[in-house]
Design a protein that fits this description.
mainly beta, 6-stranded mixed beta sheet, 392 residues, elongated
């Protein structure tokens, strides 16, 4: 015997939408139980424990618990919404009363969770519980880093230290912020790593002989690992960062050196960006290749790239400040109509993915969309040029 509620079913279970149940079918375990001669009276599920809102720090675990009575014993399936409760999707494998989310990331801040209980007599759904990731960055600040390791903090970005007073074997070429905005890493062209604030040190290539210099870094979602990339496409993984491949074993780069590595927000893949007019990409892991949404093409080399929060699109920026958007990345404006004193060298994206900043080598900052302007070093005399930025 099978009872269906709504208009659609998914894998014998279903999906929850804005209007409540839009499709649910009792699972086979419940149907088998109903056929048992020991079951005399079927009772629809009734919620006995509602899941509670949870607030945890980035990198910690979050636990949601729900329970329901009913005969036969209800089957449970957890669901998650990433759009404020408008749509819910199945959490794969989450079929017990307790849902544990290990090592939460700031990208999960605001997610809502609910449990569906079903048997042959009916279906019921718990209230939604919200996950709040404490110290989630709000995108109200950013850091700039110069080649000598000098750090310049603006907005709510705090200063945690720099390598500006150190004797560096090689210049700094990039930086990355921690998920909670309370620390950052600097990377030098020999792969040396400098960690400040709550950024952990997980290793470096500073004591290795590299064929080509390191040019960029990217971090895992929980901030417990990072990747480094060299201009020949060599990738080095540290901490909980997994190696998904490198440019060393693909088609030759010829005169198209790698200029950066950009990680998918889920940490299960990355792109290697070629510093060419075409902004060529080497893709590894679960990252996608998305359609270009524009009609113009670069006339200056691509220098950096950033992904949207859901990993379903990205922007590329050329040294003249031109922007090229792919997938679900919105075009919010370039600096290219403006006369630049120095070339653009990097970019960073807001937490909501509705804005971005561009930074030039003199520290000039250009804000678009929801990105706020919090200051720059464009009017200062710098000892060394700015080489990158990271947002809180």
């Amino acid at each position: 015997m099978r009872r269906r509620v709504g208009i659609a079913a998914l894998a014998g279970f279903g999906v929850i939408g804005t209007a409540g149940l839009i499709g649910l079918t009792a699972g086979p375990a419940a149907a088998a139980a109903a056929a048992s001669p020991h079951i005399t009276t079927a009772v629809a599920p009734a919620i006995t424990t509602q899941p509670m809102n949870q607030t945890v720090a980035a990198g910690q675990s979050a636990t949601f618990t729900a329970a329901a009575s009913g005969t036969p014993t209800p089957f449970v399936q957890w669901m998650v919404s990433t759009d404020g409760g408008r749509h819910f999707n199945i959490v794969s494998g989450a079929t017990t009363d307790t849902l544990v989310i290990a090592a939460v990331t700031v990208g999960q801040n605001g997610n809502q969770y609910q449990a569906i209980f079903s048997n042959v007599q009916g279906v019921t759904v718990t209230n939604s519980a919200t996950l709040t990731v404490s110290n989630a960055p709000q995108g109200h600040g950013y850091w700039l880093v110069a080649a000598d390791g000098g750090i310049f903090s603006f907005g709510d970005a705090q200063f945690f230290g720099s390598s500006g007073s150190l004797h560096l074997n090689k210049p700094i070429v990039g930086m990355a912020g921690t998920p909670d905005g309370r620390g950052y890493w600097l990377v030098a062209s020999d792969g040396g790593i400098f960690a400040f604030g709550d950024a952990g040190y997980f290793g470096s290539t500073g004591n290795l002989r590299l064929n080509q210099p390191v040019v960029g870094m990217a971090t895992t979602p929980d901030g417990h690992g990072y990747w480094l990339v060299a201009s020949d496409g060599g990738v080095f993984a540290f901490g909980d960062a997994h190696l998904y491949g490198s440019g060393l074993y693909g088609p030759p780069l010829d005169n198209n050196p790698i200029v950066d590595i950009v990680a998918n927000p889920d940490g299960r893949g990355y792109w290697l960006l070629e510093g060419t007019l075409g902004g060529g990409l080497r893709s590894f892991g679960d990252v996608g290749i998305f359609q270009y949404n524009g009609t113009t093409f670069p006339t200056y080399p691509i220098v950096d790239m950033a992904t949207t929060p859901d990993g379903q699109g990205f922007w590329q920026v050329a040294s003249d400040g031109s922007i090229f958007n792919f997938g679900d990345a919105a075009y919010l404006g370039p600096t290219s109509p403006l006369p630049l004193l120095q070339p653009v060298v990097g970019m960073s994206v807001t937490v909501d993915g509705k804005g971005y900043w561009l930074v030039a080598s003199d520290g000039g900052v250009f804000a678009f969309g929801s990105a706020g302007f919090f200051g720059s070093t464009g009017a200062l005399h710098l000892n060394q040029p700015v080489v990158g930025m990271a947002a809180t």
